[in-house]
Amino acid sequence: MSNVPVTGFLYHSDGDDPLHSHNMFITTWDGQPIHTHEFKGVTTFDVGHDHRYAGTTEPAPSGVQHTHRYCTFTTFDAEHKHVIRGVTGPAIFLPDGRHFHKFNGVTSVDGPTPHRHRYCGKTSL
After folding, report:
1. Which percentage of the chain shows pLDDT scores above 70?
2. With helix as H, strand as E and coil as C, how does 77-93 read?
């Protein structure tokens, strides 16, 4: 196990857990600034409906090959919603130095008729 230098700052959390009253906002990881991406899309059409979703990935270091974890809820349609959770693919770099990630997966199983949807897309730059 190696040590990775991380910088950031602590801030007060309004949560009810008496053991965790502060959160840390990380600003660099191993000397590299961190960043996030936005993502959004529409699930497949199954059991007579689809869902929309949007969110922001978890932070990851900039300037190195990386992936991002993500988690969000779909819109509430047909009397239910689904959870979308996963890990993006590796960074796809563009000639100008910016990058994006592809993502895909299946939602949680939910609904009056239990089912899941597929989803896929690309993050923002």
Report:
1. 89
2. ECCECCEEEEECCCCEE
| Residues 80/110, Cβ–Cβ less than 8 Å | yes
Mean pLDDT value across residues 28-44: 91
- Joined together, the tokens standing for residue 82 give 């689904």
In the predicted model, is pLDDT for residue 108 greater than 90?
A: yes
Angstrom CA distances, 106 to 44, 86, 94, 113, stand at 10, 9, 28, 16
47 or 14, higher pLDDT: 47
The first and second tokens of residue 23, run together, are 């959160």
Helix (H, G, I), strand (E, B) or coil at 66: coil
The C-alpha torsion from 17 through 18 and 21 to 26, rounded to 10°, is -60
